[in-house]
Specification:
With about 80 residues, the chain is of the alpha+beta class. The chain is built from four helices and five strands, in the order αβαααββββ. The termini are far apart.
């Protein structure tokens, strides 16, 4: 009698992103490098985006608008490129 037991956590879909407006984040370097957003930016990304914190100002679909604590423009990046600080 081989029965495979599945736990609710194993069979549940992935949890939605916990990032929301006001969250402090940094950019995941592995996810960012090689992305469309990285290709449309400077060849060498600024180090502060990987160190954080940046604040999420707005969410729209799979993207978040970020503001850094520096005199630089706000940017839109995909949520899968961000991680909480």
């Amino acid at each position: 009698m081989d029965e495979t037991l599945t736990t609710p956590a194993a069979s549940a879909p992935a949890a939605p992103s916990t990032l929301k407006k006001g969250s402090l984040v940094r950019v995941c370097q592995v996810a960012y490098l090689g992305s469309t957003e990285a290709g449309a930016s400077d060849p060498e990304p600024p180090q502060y985006i990987f160190e954080g914190p940046g604040e999420i100002l707005a969410l729209k679909g799979d993207y978040a608008q970020l503001r850094w604590r520096r005199p630089v423009p706000d940017v839109w990046l995909r949520l899968d490129q961000l991680e909480a600080c």
